């Protein structure tokens, strides 16, 4: 593996500057990992844009079809801790690989049980168990492989492919469903998942020959209590922000066909969800780059919460198809792009804990609140009340974001005496 060496001004504890390097192979690692991330999202949201049609096929209520997506959030709650421990002990290739294997195998098998709803639910649950092994690895991959000035960008690009998977599910699923049937749709996604799983094990390596940044150099003499780290005031507030922001994104993604249903246009809800994701993809690149360039995190969280508060209300009162497309694009740009910033910030606050620990807790938060908000939509008949609940949560997040300290408080010193 070729490494481009560059000098570091930061002293290590032995008095010598550590030698850092940039490996060209990091981009191959990122592409393969991102494709696996994309796949998990397609599998999660497979049934979301065709909720009513699938409910008719299986002769069940729409709530049961929503469960095919919500099971991913439910499974995340207990298996988050299993995934975090596995990644910490076994690393990217084998720790994360457990989830990759579950995803590839059971997505493939799902296509052969299309006539049996119970088996669809079982395979969907086993795919869901694999998801935290993949999503909890975002910051570990960034820290293991990317230099300081690219860490948030790498996490942002992973988040971007997470979003790309969602947009493909929103827009591609209705097309495949109408052209090759539900069975053809599930078989197509299954074969894709199996191929990507094999590719993952063939290409993924744990880390480059030289550490790319100071955060990837962990002194084994340093012992940090996870319990003490998670008493940190800023981390608790950041946890609250992710609880709100990621939870709302998960809920909107899962309930897209109900929140934005248009009986005259089967693709309307999917296109609105797609617009949110496209905005998020653009924002993930632009805002992550700016966050790395200026080494600031707080301002991007403040903007995301403020914009979310306003735009959710706009999406209720200005509800024409075109208006919602515009509103969803802007919401995605700021809200979704805040996730890689938050994940990177959490890893910096909790350093030198393994990155998968903070990553896991942040993603776990989004599943908890996502489930709660989905239940609100399922059991509170008034859409207006549900929109007000979401707007109120964003407003609370805005206040929290104003109180949090920025990353400057946690930046590694350029000289350690």
From TrEMBL:
Chief subcellular location: membrane
Membrane topology type: Multi-pass membrane protein
Compartments, as annotated in UniProt: Membrane
GO cellular component: membrane
PROSITE patterns listed in its UniProt record: MFS
Pfam families for the chain: MFS_1
Gene Ontology molecular function, alphabetical: transmembrane transporter activity
Domain of life assignment: Archaea
InterPro entries, per the entry: FLVCR1-2_SLC49-like, MFS, MFS_dom, MFS_trans_sf
Keyword list, A-Z: Membrane, Transmembrane, Transmembrane helix
Residues in Major facilitator superfamily (MFS) profile domain copies: 25-409
TM region positions: 24-44, 64-83, 90-111, 117-138, 159-180, 186-204, 235-254, 266-287, 299-318, 330-349, 361-381, 387-405
Protein name, entry field: MFS transporter
């Amino acid at each position: 593996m070729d490494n481009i060496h560059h000098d570091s001004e930061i002293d290590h504890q032995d008095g010598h500057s550590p030698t850092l390097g940039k490996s060209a192979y990091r981009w191959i690692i990122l592409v393969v990992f991102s494709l696996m991330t994309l796949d998990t999202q397609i599998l999660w949201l497979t049934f979301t844009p065709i909720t009513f049609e699938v409910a008719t096929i299986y002769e069940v209520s729409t709530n049961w079809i929503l469960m095919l997506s919500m099971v991913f959030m439910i499974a995340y709650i207990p298996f988050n801790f299993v995934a975090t421990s596995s990644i910490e002990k076994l690393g990217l290739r084998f720790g994360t690989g457990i989830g990759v294997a579950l995803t590839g195998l059971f997505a493939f098998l799902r296509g052969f049980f299309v006539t049996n709803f119970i088996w669809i639910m079982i395979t969907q649950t086993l795919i869901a168990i694999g998801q935290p092994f993949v999503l909890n690895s975002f910051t570990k991959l960034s820290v293991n492989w990317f230099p300081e000035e690219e860490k948030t960008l790498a996490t942002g690009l992973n988040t971007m492919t997470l979003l790309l998977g969602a947009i493909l599910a929103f827009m591609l699923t209705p097309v495949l469903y109408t052209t090759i049937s539900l069975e053809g749709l599930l078989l197509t996604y299954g074969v894709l998942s199996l191929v990507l799983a094999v590719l993952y094990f063939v290409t993924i390596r744990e880390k480059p020959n030289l550490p790319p940044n100071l955060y990837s150099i962990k002194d084994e003499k340093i012992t940090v209590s996870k319990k003490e780290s998670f008493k940190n005031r800023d981390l608790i507030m950041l946890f609250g922000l992710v609880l709100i922001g990621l939870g709302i994104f998960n809920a909107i993604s899962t309930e897209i066909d109900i929140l934005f249903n248009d009986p005259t246009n089967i693709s309307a809800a999917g296109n609105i969800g797609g617009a949110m994701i496209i905005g998020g993809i653009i924002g993930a690149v632009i805002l992550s780059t700016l966050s790395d360039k200026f080494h600031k995190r707080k301002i991007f969280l403040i903007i995301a919460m403020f914009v979310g508060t306003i735009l959710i209300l706009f999406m209720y009162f200005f509800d024409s198809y075109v208006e919602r497309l515009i509103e969803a694009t802007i919401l995605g740009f700021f809200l979704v792009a805040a996730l890689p910033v938050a994940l990177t910030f959490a890893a910096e606050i909790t350093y030198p804990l393994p990155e998968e620990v903070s990553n896991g807790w942040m993603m776990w938060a989004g599943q908890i609140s996502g489930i709660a908000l989905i239940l609100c939509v399922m059991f509170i008949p008034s859409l207006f009340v549900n929109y007000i609940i979401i707007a109120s949560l964003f407003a609370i997040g805005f206040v929290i974001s104003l109180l949090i300290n920025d990353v400057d408080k946690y930046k590694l010193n350029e000289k350690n005496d």
